[in-house]
Write the structure tokens for this entry.
Amino acid sequence: MKITSKTGPLMAPLPTVMVSCGDMENSNIITIAWTGIINSNPPMTYVSVQRSRHSHDIIAESGEFVINLTTVELAKAMDFCGVRSGRDIDKFTHLGLTREAGDHVSAPMIAESPVNLECKVTEMKSFPTHDMFIAEIVAIHIDDKYVDEKGAYDFGSMDLVSFTHGKYYRHKSTELGFFGYSVMKPKTAKRRRKKGK
Ligand SMILES: Cc1cc2nc3c(=O)[nH]c(=O)nc-3n(C[C@H](O)[C@H](O)[C@H](O)COP(=O)(O)O)c2cc1C
């Protein structure tokens, strides 16, 4: 049996990312769970930000931001960036995080995060509670310790954090399958086993 709940912004699991904005001198970090991918080519993402956030005006003005993925090690800093405003505190300095210059945007990347996505805003859509900044992902930086010699990414080892209904969860590294594994031919399965995949 299932109970019918009142409706709300429920989706699970959601990423919870640290979005850096501003520039190398005046920067801020906001925690964002309302994010995702909306197009493959060009790769496009969005962040939905309430108009009251300090970061909202910075992103609206600069048209740039960086999405930094959150690891278990960064979880407390991520939570802090979601409960304190950059109006009152320099979050980079307070948390001892390192600003790293990006290649295409002025917003600093968080060096301690294993994955940084440089984003350029192409459009803003207003909703009753949030403004959605739609952006192109113009560059991706991944810590090389998570990239193998063939260039494959090992997200399972990153120990990423997700957010569901007010709580944080560890993204466990137990792989269940891969894209298309439900229709894999026996021959392909054999070849993969041979390669130790
Ligand atoms: C886990 C988590 C997820 C959040 N997701 C969002 C979000 O998607 N959009 C938003 O506007 N605020 C979100 N917030 C709240 C902002 O991060 C928070 O208000 C922050 O203090 C704003 O910082 P700023 O004023 O420096 O921009 C989230 C907070 C937490 C803890």
Notes: The chain has one domain: 14-194. The domain at 14-194 is CATH 2.30.110.10 (Pnp Oxidase; Chain A). The mean pLDDT is 95.
